[in-house]
Request: fold
Amino acid sequence: MKAAHEEWFARTPPPAQHLGSGDRKWPPERLRYQSRVLLKHWQLEGLVDRVDTVLTELVNNALVHGGGASVGFRMTLTEAGLLVEVADSAPDLVSHVVYDEPEEHGRGLLLVDAFADDWGTRPRDVGKWTWAAFAVPARTEGAR
Reply:
């Protein structure tokens, strides 16, 4: 691992209550800001739009479908590339989805599939991590 950042935040209101639009809005905004700062620091500004889109979808899915009292975010830069991960408390692993019917909602994973180079889920002690991988352009000596 070359560098990493991890953050957890409380899901409010509690999972048994409906999330208002404000409750769904601030977490993706905050995490997009943090991811942009990290991408700039890592000199990967060319990934900002793709990472923003994927991160927004993964966080929204965790908030709306993930349950539990908290959501986690981790971004890791390795020799192999950039890994963006979002944790929730839902035990069901998500798989690649094929949509037959035109719907106004529920297309987030299609965006993840389109913008990430690869993605999937893996279990954790309570719930799962949903991850998205991005290839990183070769860097020259002296890059941070």
In short: Strands lie at 3-10, 70-77, 82-88, 118-123, 128-134. The chain has a mean pLDDT of 80. The chain is about 35% helix and 25% strand.
